[in-house]
């Protein structure tokens, strides 16, 4: 899925404007960086059919772990938490003593699929700054699909970012997200705070600070460009567009479904599942075609057997067009030649009618054609026992105005 990823500029609250520069990344498949540059909001590449994902820098976010009161978290119709004013008030009360700013000045966002009865991660940032940073994008008619954090408390990782003069260390893990100056003391403290052994902790660094990180860690580090980091952030499940920054509930649901579909279609860990599904689909198509071919062969064999039966029984038939009809016609000719009656003859039809009708019924008129007898003078609402008796002899009786029409049943022999 084509995606345009934009990093919000770290400018003071209210300072973002049409002259603000945005770092951006374009990707066609969601896995590889196609281009990376910086431009004004009006000069950003047109998203077109691509998803526009906005990344909030780590410096703009703080992370807090809280226990929500029972019943304060409501679920939306398609999963996920519902951003309600009541939940906003609950978060303000829980975080009031932990924040350096007034809770009313901050924007909050809950973790994806937040549990109703356990600890929940809450991301917080300055509301005025976020609104100001998004304003140039909205003014340039760029529709934001998701707002994601640059780092989230998921995988255990240490990441060195910035420049050699202003190197910073980002620590992520069960403790949350910490942003510290990169140094020997802070690196040792971050390694000690992780639940894993220090040698097992993944250390990632931008190329500009990779040498410094290797010197402090005394081991090789994994290189990662800033653009690759933002691409990884866009693949995360977090969406900070909640409360006043959220779209309608239906839009949020569709965005969640689209994000999950993107993960299933592009994430490397689902590659085996995608191959398995493709093989299953191919096997089903092959099996369906094989079954259809087998059924067609069986049907052709039955038609051939019927044609052979007709031509072998009646050698005079040279061209077979409709075997059952032609066979019935040939049988009728044989009966006629032998002087035998068939169910379509007048004698057989009158005999069946005389057997089925009560003695008090008598017809006043008869109009006969081969295979059909129209009777006058009989009640149009014939009793059910009469109909059953005729049906047992292979005939059907129906009303047609003031007449009763007697015909051989379709299944009766000609």
From TrEMBL:
It is a single-pass membrane protein. It comes from the Bacteria. It is found in: Cell inner membrane. Residues 269-375 form the GspL periplasmic domain. Keywords: Cell inner membrane, Cell membrane, Membrane, Protein transport, Transmembrane, Transmembrane helix, Transport. Residues 36-150 form the GspL cytoplasmic actin-ATPase-like domain. Pfam families: GspL_C, T2SSL. Belongs to the GSP L family. This is General secretion pathway protein L.
């Amino acid at each position: 899925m084509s995606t345009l990823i934009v990093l919000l500029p770290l400018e003071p609250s209210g300072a973002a404007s049409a002259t603000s520069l945005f770092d951006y990344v374009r990707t066609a498949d969601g896995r590889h960086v196609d281009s990376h540059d910086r431009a004004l909001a009006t000069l950003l590449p047109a998203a077109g059919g691509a998803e526009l994902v906005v990344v909030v820098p780590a410096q703009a976010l703080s992370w807090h772990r809280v226990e929500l009161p029972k019943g304060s978290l409501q679920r939306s119709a398609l999963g996920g938490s519902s951003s309600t004013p009541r939940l906003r008030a609950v978060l303000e009360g829980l975080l009031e003593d932990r924040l350096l700013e007034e809770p009313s000045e901050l924007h909050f966002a809950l973790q994806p699929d937040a549990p109703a009865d356990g600890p929940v991660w809450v991301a917080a940032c300055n509301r005025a700054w976020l609104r100001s940073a998004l304003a140039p994008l909205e003014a340039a008619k760029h529709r934001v699909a998701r707002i994601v954090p640059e780092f989230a408390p998921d995988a255990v990782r240490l990441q060195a970012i910035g420049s050699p003069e202003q190197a910073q260390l980002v620590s992520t893990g069960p403790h949350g997200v910490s942003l510290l100056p990169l140094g020997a003391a802070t690196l040792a403290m971050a390694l000690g705070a992780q639940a894993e052994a220090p040698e097992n902790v993944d250390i990632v660094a931008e190329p500009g600070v990779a040498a410094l990180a290797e010197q402090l860690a005394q081991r090789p580090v994994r290189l990662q460009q800033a653009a690759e980091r933002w691409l990884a952030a866009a693949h995360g499940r977090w969406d900070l567009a909640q409360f006043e920054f959220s779209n309608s509930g239906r839009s949020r649901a569709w965005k969640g479904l689209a994000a999950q579909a993107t993960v299933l279609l592009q994430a490397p860990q689902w590659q085996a599942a995608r191959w398995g599904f493709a093989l299953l689909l191919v096997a089903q198509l092959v099996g369906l075609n094989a079954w259809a071919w087998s059924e067609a062969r069986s049907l052709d064999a039955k038609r051939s057997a019927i044609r052979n039966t007709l031509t072998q029984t009646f050698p005079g038939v040279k061209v077979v067009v409709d075997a059952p009809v032609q066979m019935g016609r040939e049988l009728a000719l044989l009966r006629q030649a032998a002087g035998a009656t068939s169910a379509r003859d007048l004698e057989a039809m009158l005999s069946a009618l005389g057997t089925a009708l009560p003695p008090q019924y008598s017809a006043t008129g008869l109009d006969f054609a081969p295979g059909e007898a129209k009777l006058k003078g009989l009640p149009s609402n014939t009793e059910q026992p009469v109909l059953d008796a005729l049906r047992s002899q292979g005939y059907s009786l129906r009303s047609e105005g003031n007449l009763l029409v007697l015909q051989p049943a379709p299944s009766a022999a000609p």
